[in-house]
Amino acid sequence: MSSPEASSELKAGHPPAVKAGGMRITQHKVPSHDKHPEVKKVEGEEEEEEVQVTPSPPKQQLIISGVAVRGDADFPAEAVQAFHNKPIPSHDYRQVTKPNIIHQPRK
Predict the structure, then answer these.
(1) What is the largest CA-CA distance in the chain?
(2) Considering the entire predicted model, what is its pTM?
(3) Is the Cβ–Cβ distance between 7 and 16 less than 8 Å?
(4) Where are the residues of the annotated region Disordered (predicted)?
């Protein structure tokens, strides 16, 4: 087989697949958006103050027929839940497990 130094090299920009029990196991890694590329500063450049950006944008006021919406206060959870609950059926429909097969002779 190959030496351990050769297996640690990147292949096609990513580490090779891990083998366990003769089968390859892929390791899915979600790319994180937290990584920012480091900017190298040249000597003589002054450091600038960075502007802090808030993670969430300000929420917009929703106006319905001239009145601002108050979110959950307009529609209580009990009223919404009662509206969305389905009534219990009076007749229980059961699915047929086997298909109806009609034996007919061919012409």
Answers:
(1) 96
(2) 0.20
(3) yes
(4) 1-59, 88-107
